[in-house]
Amino acid sequence: MTKYPEVTSLIPHRPPMLLVSRVLDVQEKIGLAEAPVKEDHLFLCENGALLPETCCELIAQGYGVCEAYRRIQKGLTIKGGGYLATLRDMESFSSARAGDVLTIKTEKMDECFDTYIVRGEVLRGEEKLAQATVYIFMWKGEPPKSL
After folding, report:
1. Are 66 and 105 in contact (CB under 8 A)?
2. Which of the four pLDDT bands, split at 50, 70 and 90, describes residue 144?
3. Distance set, CA 88 to CA 50, 56, 66, 120 (Å)
4. What DSSP designation does 142 have?
5. What gap in Å lies between CA 45 and CA 52, rounded to an integer?
6. pLDDT tens across 61-114, in order?
7. Is the pLDDT of residue 51 over 80?
8. Labelling 114: which of 38, 86, 91, 145 has CA 20 to 30 A away?
9. pLDDT in the model for residue 77
10. Domain total for the chain?
């Protein structure tokens, strides 16, 4: 069983914006990460349900931690950053609730310049709660001057 680094060493997010808690598995293009829905979750509504749009950020962070691990394994730097640029085909099937532990499955579909096209799913056990394709702009080193 692979021991993965702490997510805080892989992406710059910190609470309350840090939504993923650990890396579960990393393959060449597929990655799995875990995200608990705690009572104080940033995107939890008064009715106890997680905002459906949260799936996009979960997918982006899930991909980010897995991609950072891939880079480390190849001896590449993880210095840099990225942001969720846009999304397509988001579908929400059911709501996550406080106490749920979610699995984020991501697959890199393509890349163009510094933008990664990632298909992701948010799962509660075997149940698919949401899916989307996200476009993540990533850079290596210092941020571009336009930011």
Report:
1. no
2. low
3. 20, 10, 21, 11
4. S
5. 10
6. 999 999 999 999 999 888 887 889 999 999 999 999 999 999 999 999 999 988
7. yes
8. 91
9. 85
10. 1
Residues 92 and 43: their CA atoms lie apart, in Å, by: 15
Q: Let me know if residue 115 belongs to a domain.
A: yes
Angle at the Cα of 109 from the Cα atoms of 89 and 52, rounded to 5 degrees: 30
Name residues whose C-beta falls within 8 Å of residue 65's C-beta, 6 or more positions apart in sequence. 7, 10, 11, 20, 23, 31, 33
Q: Is 146 part of a structural domain of the chain?
A: no
Q: Look up the domain containing 79 and give its range.
A: 7-140
Q: Which of 34, 12, 1, 41 is nearest to 106 (CA)?
A: 34
Buried-exposed string 88-112: b where 16+ CB fall within 10 A, e elsewhere: eebebeebbeeebebbbbbbbeeee
Can you tell me the distance from the alpha carbon of 142 to that of 54, in angstroms, rounded to the nearest whole number? 27
In a domain, 145, yes or no: no
Residue 128 sits in a domain whose CATH number is 3.10.129.10
The whole-angstrom separation of Cα 41 and Cα 31 is 23
pTM: 0.93
